[in-house]
Amino acid sequence: MSKTILDLIGNTPMVESKVLNPNPNVKLLFKLEGNNPGGSVKDRPAYNMIRSGLERGDFSSSSKLIEATSGNTGIALAMIAGIYGLDIELVMPENSTKERVQTMRAYGAKVTLTPTDVGIEGARDYAEAKVRDEGYVMLNQFANNDNWMAHYQTTGPEIWKDTHGEITHFVSSMGTTGTIMGTSTYLKEQDSKVQIVGVQPTDDSKIPGIRKWPEAYLPKIFNPKKVDTVLEVSETEATEMAKRLAKEEGIFAGMSSGGAAAAAIRLAETLERGTIVSIVCDRGDRYLSSDLFD
């Protein structure tokens, strides 16, 4: 049966850690979201936000869409907007890797870079001003229920099915928090004892894709009651684990995936037994112009 590229979103594989897992009584599984066609977990919410928004009539083919992004969501939106023939502008801090900028432009999106010193918050402010002053439509991944619902409908069910309902712990880095919100909601409905572990950076660390948001910018879709435990990882831990994932497990991924893996391994050391699923949210090739793998 012939498929479109959109049919390839989701149903990503899971692989078992054979080297990094420190506990033989614990099964540690990595869910490889880089296998999505756009290269990251963000293909799921991007597709759901665009498809559902069009179906509801929130915007149309003549609308001008805009979104602030740290990278992966922007790539996914650029790919899917291009397929639907939509006009989209993506706003990112100017220190974003050139691979991300070039990929978005390759898919046909307009890319606007905002000053590094104001971070993703500044990019969000720019996008909101365009909505307010120029009639743009913002998908707003930080407040759009279609974001977390994508994971409730796909990521959670896939993990439950592929672990045969044996998952005991789910580990995910927290950025927009859509992945952890949607997956938590589904897994808790299947078994309330499944522990949901969110990963944040330590106060002095900057890890692309993982944030500890100021209160004013906290994603509206985030519900702290859906996260049982929050583990903090340092920039050094996340970087070193991204390198170890590639070298020792053959999993080439970015820094936020390294952060989640570091937290999952730390968690495994504390358990008598269990099955941990950790999200590997993207591929490492979009970080090659950074110093991550130097």
Automatic annotation (TrEMBL):
Which UniProt keyword terms apply here?
Answer: Amino-acid biosynthesis, Cysteine biosynthesis, Pyridoxal phosphate, Transferase
A single MF term (Gene Ontology): cysteine synthase activity
Q: Does the keyword Cytoplasm apply?
A: no
Record EC number: 2.5.1.47
Q: Which residues does the record list as N6-(pyridoxal phosphate)lysine (modified residue)? A: 42
Q: Which InterPro entries match?
A: Cys_synth, Cys_Synth/Cystath_Beta-Synth, CysM, P-phosphate_BS, TrpB-like_PALP, TrpB-like_PALP_sf
Which superkingdom? Bacteria
Per the UniProt entry, what are the Gene Ontology biological process annotations, in alphabetical order? Answer: cysteine biosynthetic process from serine
- Which reactions is this enzyme annotated as catalysing? O-acetyl-L-serine + hydrogen sulfide = L-cysteine + acetate
Q: Provide the residue positions that the database annotates as binding pyridoxal 5'-phosphate.
A: 72, 175-179, 256
- Ranges for domain Tryptophan synthase beta chain-like PALP come to 6-282
Q: What is this protein called?
A: Cysteine synthase
Instruction: Supply the source organism for this entry.
Output: Flagellimonas alvinocaridis
Q: In the record, what lineage is assigned to the organism producing the protein?
A: Bacteria, Pseudomonadati, Bacteroidota, Flavobacteriia, Flavobacteriales
* Gene for this chain: cysM
